[in-house]
Amino acid sequence: MKTTEEKAKEIAKLMEDGKGRDVVLLDISGLNSWTDYFVIVTVTSSTHWQGLYKQVKEYIKDNDLEIHVTNRKSPDGDDWNLIDLGPVVVHLMSEQAREFYDLEKLWFSGKKLEY
Question: Of 8, 14, 69, 72, which has the fewest CB atoms closer than 10 Å, so is most exposed?
Answer without folding.
Answer: 69
